[in-house]
Amino acid sequence: MSSTWLITNLVAAFLLPPLDALLLVGLGWALWRRRPRLARGLVGAGALLLFVLSLPVVGDALLRTLEGEPVNAEAMRQAQAIVVLGGGRYREAPEYGGDTAGKETLLRLRYAARLQRETGLPLLVSGGKPDGGDLSEAETMRAALIHDFGVPVRWVEGASDDTRQNARFSAELLRRDGVSRVLLVTHAWHMPRAMRSFAAAGIAVTPAPTFFHRAPLTPLDFLPRPEGLLASRHAMHEWIGLVWTAWRG
Prior knowledge:
The chain has helices at residues 3-15, 19-30, 36-53, 56-64, 73-76, 103-119, 137-148, 163-176, 191-200, 226-248, and strands at 81-85, 89-93, 98-101, 123-126, 155-157, 181-185, 204-207. It is of the alpha/beta class and 249 residues long. It has 2 domains: 11-65 and 222-248, no CATH class; 73-207, 3-Layer(aba) Sandwich (Rossmann fold), CATH 3.40.50.620. α4 packs parallel to α10 (226-248) and α8 (163-176) crosses α9 (191-200). One of its GO terms (cellular component) is plasma membrane. InterPro entries: Cell_Envelope_Assoc, DUF218, Rossmann-like_a/b/a_fold. Residues 80-241 form the DUF218 domain.
């Protein structure tokens, strides 16, 4: 397991919902006897934050601040290859007898397979195993693309621990074969940070995003639900990541 990955994710856990809101509530309870007015404010703020971030309408709005538009046919013709970034593994899956591609990764792979059939472009998969395991994300992605989606994979980048390394290590493989512009497949909320990383690595990107949630609003979207909290978490994670990337340069 990568120590850098572990520390980064531990810090992120304290900054993101639901733990950030629960910490406010916990701090309020700790101060209840000594500073009752402040304590009530902290408990109320934490509860309100958790409630608001759990609303699907809020999570959707936060994601839209990061999302661009779907790729168009003219832009696709300029690319020389397709790069798919991993979105997590399903570790030790009993029905598969080991590690396999996770749910978010499969959404990206499905779209990448469609793009590959439409364009005939060679395909690169990228993702390591910072949390341990037998197979890297890239290896599980290659297996899914070949066996489940029936499309070939030319390059496998399985050493990266984060988005910056996805870009750097993928760029090394691509440049050996003269590739300088790619169709980049990842979730739309992750695309801004991924594009910055690939630009820094010297690879031009045509974004080919998949979208988390674009369904019409219903009354249920104004009630707290787990998917609302997940959407808010994704958005906040990416905004923090963009700030961190800009700070690191």
